[in-house]
Automatic annotation (TrEMBL), chain A:
This is Annexin D4-like. GO terms for molecular function: calcium ion binding; calcium-dependent phospholipid binding; phosphatidylserine binding. Ca(2+) 3 binds at residue 295. InterPro entries: Annexin_repeat, Annexin_sf, AnnexinD_plant. One of its GO terms (biological process) is response to heat. The keyword Coiled coil does not apply. Ca(2+) 1 binds at residues 14, 16, 18, 251.
TrEMBL record, chain B:
It comes from Nelumbo nucifera. InterPro entries: Annexin, Annexin_repeat, Annexin_repeat_CS, Annexin_sf, AnnexinD_plant. Gene3D superfamilies: Annexin. It comes from the Eukaryota. This is Annexin. Ca(2+) 3 binds at residue 298. GO terms for cellular component: cytoplasm; plasma membrane.
Amino acid sequence: MAFPQDIDALTKAFSGFGVDENAIIWILGKWYPEQRRSFRKGCSQFFWEDERLFERWDDNHIAFLEREFLRFKNAMVLWILHPWERDARMAKEALKNREYDILIEIACTRSSEELLGTRRAYHSLFDHSIEEDVAYSVHDNNRNLLVALVSSYRYEGPKVNEEIAKKEAKTLWEAFKNVNKNPIEDGEVVRIITTRSKLHLKSVFNHYKVVSGKNIEEDLEEDSSLKDAIQCLSSPKAYFSRILDIAMMGGADEKHKEALTRIIVTQADAYMKEIAEEYLQQYGVSLSQKIEETTKGNYKDFLLTLVSRGV
Amino acid sequence: MSTLVVPESIPSAIEDCEQLRKAFQGWGTNEKLIISILAHRNAAQRKIIRQTYAEKYGEDLLKSLERELTSDFEIVVLLWTLDPTDRDAFLANEATRKWKATNQVLLEIACTRTSNELLSARQAYHARFKRSLEEDVAYHTTGDFRKLLVPLVSSYRYEGPEVNTTLAKSEAKILHEKIKEKAYNHEDVIRILTTRSKEQLIATFNNYNNDFGNAINKDLKADPKDEFQAALRALVKCLTRPEKYFEKALRLAINKNGTDEFALTRIVTTRAGVDMKKIKEEYQRRNSVPLERAIGSDTSGHYEEMLLALIGHGES
């Protein structure tokens, strides 16, 4: 008979973010057939009694476990890849799965040179330009915004034209107020968001607050590409810390959980310190602590190592 | 093929700089000396001369040229001496600020340069104008032209030989449909023309011709006065047969009442080191008179001499 606390520990080892390899080795590895049998019988979470009289493992849980075991390997591969290849591959996957928020994240939070490098790598990897694939695969009204975002090569210097920024803030405000037209279909909105430098946009968003009385994000539809783009452009660390929180929430689905690996790995050398500070401020618990609580095993240790490098 | 005539063995950069400095000194300027050097050095050599000149005399060669030269001769020498990427950035900015629907310079630059050359021009644009090329183009153009030009100057086309023949066939069909419906500004038309690689587009246009009986440019001439259709035709030409585009642009610049010197200068300086030979052949074929003769009868003085030297005429 297996000890109940061992059964408990092993169940925990199998259910969450990553797997607790140690528990598996030290508990499971020692079990004889009767102990494994009593685990199967006692664990209705993962096993059920098949009509032909054997304890059958739930298919969904097997698939779940496969994903969890792969999390560490995926994080490691992503970490080793050249940033350009990494972004190019992520962009391709995102396009395939219609995960436009990831495309927007890449296009808006990387520097102009990094995005350029990604476009180069994309040529090598996929024999197409990224903009041609995005234009070809996206059929809804997100197309123009997305193509323009991945094609941008924003100026990165300090010069900003305040007069124009003021004018453009007003243009955005009027476009958002217009109930007859979706702002994402407004040529001027797309022009401003996809071509102006980040510093210029900062000024635009400040003027927006003056003109509208609200932060620009408050005036936009939840779950819209335009909102994601503006968040990534105006406050990337708030954006990242929000996505991290969603990833680590109980009941998060795979798409949201994947973001944990993606953001920690892609930001470990960039904004990690700022993201951790923002996270603490927003959610009252340190990022490392949250990761410690929510993830397991080698995956957890890897993430914590990455996070603590910059912090 | 380039028409640039560079002597087998050229003087060292220091010697060239000393000669150029001599050309500036004393009464007036020795324009012939300037032409004999600068018109016979390629881009890499000119770059070294500029660096050496700056080190030796503490001043940018371009500044000296700007001070000493005047009028059309000054412009052709300055444009020629500029680094090709700086030149493209400068020309793009000119074209953008003074943009009109009949102006095809942005199309020309975006479509006749390689992907990396266009990219470098965009980088040079940042440095020079403190803004991105696409933001300026977006700001100064409107409507259908903006929809076409912004993605065009932002494109980074794949440059390999891979071609998807099924796609070429299906996209030729899309183009044909939209052109028939006169939906020239349709999203898919713009998508195909501004994102596909040059090889892919050549295959697509071939399919268009085979499957529908007309070359795409013939069908794009439904209204010869329509400027957007003209732009699309120019775009197709630039991507597939740039020498034809440039021959026409040269012909228009020369035949125009009084000659469009800036256009003439632009084309000669940007193509002399690239495909001017082919352009000259096309010009002769189309106009039955060599380009040298046309330029000779329409321009004069040192400006004429510089242009002729760049297109390979006269002694080296």
